[in-house]
Design goal:
The complex is a heterodimer of chains A (387) and B (288). Chain A is an alpha/beta fold and 387 residues long. Chain A has 13 helices and 16 strands. In chain A, 55% of the residues are buried. In chain B, strands 1, 2, 3, 4, 5, 6, 7, 8 and 9 form a 9-stranded mixed sheet that branches. The chains are: A alpha/beta (387), B alpha/beta (288).
């Protein structure tokens, strides 16, 4: 796999025709990722291919591990050595990573996991696209926890949202997943390698070593300052429920305190994390809600319907977890009477939207298929719903 | 009241010569268990080498020995079951200056984590891995382990174990470890020396530490209490030099456990190779 041949456009921004997988890898490097540990799996492998070529050029480290269990823990280890790290996989690999995603949450280790969804369950359809792992991204690991999951829908967003994923992981000290799919990962589109974005780095320890407690919080964001190996700080971090000092603590009080803080640091930050694209919310009676690859045909259909005099609009989620409750409230307050949820699975995000049935009717186009819905098909389905 | 506050630290422990380098409140091991001596040996080795906090990290998996990382005043990581080695690999590769020591049990390193062990050895990643081998799963209730000997009684082999155990030093050598040794846990001086050698060898070092579990293993196999089991172990241990790793007998039936150093080889470590790779990638980019 060659590095993308790029040119500079009139405003000096490098641009090239690349696949979503390469865009994601380049986004990671642009935001400062210098460590990748992964294991080959279709349709995500090109991220590893590209990282194996590019990371050594920027003084980074690429390592192909023996399996996904090792890939995620190796990335967590690198994160605790102070290096921004990531791994990439697809559904079966994410299943294997599940346990240590929880370790990442518990150790509050910033890490980015890119998952290129393919057909499932089990080996499923490795070379196709899917949105059937949306629950997996949220609930893969055991225990009560929160996670951030971003859903790009273009090659450009593979770059942009991978950058954002690192920033969110560093800011909230939590694993962040970029949930893409086999089509977006493999398809080529023009990519602008812009570099005028903000780079967020983790909060360092806020007290000197002798006063440092690895999980002591000083700020309203509930995020503790992070010491790493190779400094003058000594600290003990454990997957066991722990107190501020890191001491294992099996009391009910410790469980409540820790789980609440770990969850609340994400829940509280929802207004900042949640992001979406919306159109015609002001006058729409019916809204089509979609995300990822399956949202690409939506604007065309909505414009066509509006030209025919239908009061429709759309929203496209750029992250599905934490779920943007405030968007649902906004839709409800705008007087929308119906939300149609379109997704390539047998109904996942629709369950979240159904929590707001007191505000609007909810129906779904929930098909566990492996190719995105065509505009023609969507048009027919929406017409059935609004007539 | 936190659990950690309830742990009674005996008065004399305040005079412990390594107190400055240990967290005694996290010491949860049964009196008589040799995990403590392994912790002491590692700590003494790091101290004698003059290493400070920014020079090293300690990683453990899950189980009795999994709890040991918390006893060190160090960047210390208590990871998921079986994954201590890949976590340590990440630390080492991201900061090659660190001396990374992994200590974990035989179940953690060789059952659930067996794959990581052989691949880390194959890569010759610069880690020192200590396996506290008690031939049984201790913390989970005395179940059969991949190191349990044939015929032994455990919680899940009430009629006697039928599976052959791994010979860990032979396995480590075959997988490519460049330093391999086995010591009884009570032999703290040899163990400490061995740890120092492994760290200095700058490759994948493996040290098996024999640490009989009288609670889970001794009681079921009628081997007595902690002191009696140490005596039982001592009578079997034979320290030999120049023994090939695959001939390093570990046989409770014959009463022979050959201890010593089995592999000591100079070979470039994985993190060094990655540094060279970076150079090559830079040069290639320059030529373009």
């Amino acid at each position: 796999m060659m590095s993308p041949k790029s040119i500079k456009n009139s405003s000096g921004i490098k641009q090239a025709l690349v696949t979503g997988n390469i865009a994601s890898a380049e986004g990671a490097i642009a935001v400062g990722c210098r460590f990748f540990a992964g294991y080959p799996i279709t349709p995500s492998s090109e991220i590893a291919h590209h990282m194996s070529r590019r990371l050594p050029e920027v003084n980074g480290t690429f390592v192909q591990m023996e399996d996904e269990l090792a890939s995620i823990t190796c990335s967590l280890g690198a994160s605790y050595a102070g290096v921004k790290s990531m791994t990439a996989t697809s559904g079966p690999g994410l299943s294997l990573m599940a346990e240590s995603i929880g370790l990442g949450v518990m150790l509050e280790a910033p890490v980015v996991i890119v998952t290129i969804m393919r057909g499932g369950p089990s080996t499923g359809q490795p070379t196709n696209a899917s949105q059937s792992d949306i629950y997996q991204t949220r609930y893969a690991s055991h225990g009560d926890y929160q996670i951030i999951v971003l859903t790009p829908s273009t090659v450009q967003e593979m770059y942009d949202l991978t950058i954002r994923a690192f920033n969110l992981a560093e800011k909230y000290r939590n694993p962040v997943i970029v949930a893409s799919d086999g089509f977006l990962g493999q398809m080529m589109e023009p990519l602008y390698f812009h570099s005028d974005f903000e780079i967020v780095n983790r909060k360092p320890p806020q007290v000197p070593p002798e006063k440092y407690k690895p999980f002591e919080v000083f700020d309203d964001d509930l995020v503790p300052g992070m010491a790493v190996a190779g400094t003058d700080y000594d600290f003990y971090v454990s997957g066991l429920t722990h107190d501020e000092m890191g001491n294992p603590d099996q009391s009910p009080e410790a469980a409540v305190k820790l789980i609440k803080r770990l969850s609340d640091k994400i829940i509280k930050a929802r207004p900042e994390i949640n992001d979406w694209e919306e159109k015609y919310l002001d006058d729409a009676e019916t809204i089509l809600l979609s995300y990822g690859i399956n949202s690409r045909g939506v604007p065309e259909v909505i414009e066509k319907l509006r030209n025919e005099g239908k009061n429709v609009g759309y929203v496209r989620l750029k992250n599905v977890w934490p779920f943007p409750d405030e968007l649902m409230e906004k839709i409800g307050n705008n007087g929308v009477s119906k939300v149609i949820v379109s997704e390539m699975n047998y109904g996942m995000i629709i369950r979240e939207v159904q929590r707001f049935r007191h505000l609007f009717d909810v129906s779904g186009i929930s098909i566990p298929t492996v190719i995105p819905f065509s505009p023609k098909f969507l048009y027919k389905k929406i017409m059935e719903e609004i007539n | 009241m936190k659990l950690s506050d309830e742990v009674c630290i005996p008065e004399e422990a305040y005079d412990h010569p390594l107190r400055e380098r240990l967290n005694l409140n996290r010491f949860i091991f049964c009196p008589g268990c040799l995990i403590g001596t392994a912790i002491t040996s590692i700590t003494n080795s790091l101290r004698e080498k003059g290493l400070t906090l920014k020079d090293y990290a300690i990683v453990s998996g899950i189980g009795c020995t999994g709890r040991s990382s918390g006893c060190f005043k160090a960047p210390a990581f208590h990871t998921t079951h079986g994954r201590a080695i890949p976590f340590a690999t990440g630390l080492k590769l991201a900061n090659p200056k660190l001396k990374v020591v992994v200590l974990s049990g035989d179940g953690d390193l060789f059952a659930i984590g067996g794959n990581h062990f052989i691949h880390a050895a194959r890569r010759n990643i610069e880690l020192t891995v200590l396996c506290i081998n008690n031939n049984v799963y201790g913390m989970t209730g005395g179940q059969v382990a991949p190191t349990t000997h044939i015929g032994d009684i455990t919680s899940t082999t009430p009629y006697g174990n039928m599976e052959s155990p791994f010979n860990l030093v032979s396995l480590a050598a075959a997988a490519g470890a460049t330093y391999v040794a086995r010591w009884p846990g009570y032999d703290t001086l040899r163990l400490q020396k061995s740890i120092t050698k492994s760290i200095d060898n700058d490759g994948f070092g493996f040290i098996e530490v024999l640490a009989p579990c009288f609670i889970q293993y001794g009681s079921k196999n009628k081997l007595g209490d902690a002191v009696e089991m140490l005596d039982w172990l001592r009578k079997q241990v034979k320290i030999e030099t120049n023994v090939a790793p695959h001939k390093a007998t570990f046989d409770f039936k014959k009463g022979i456990i050959i201890c010593g150093e089995f592999v000591e080889e100079k070979k470039e470590g994985f993190s060094k190779k990655i540094e060279e790779l970076r150079e090559r990638a830079h040069n290639k980019k320059k030529k373009k």
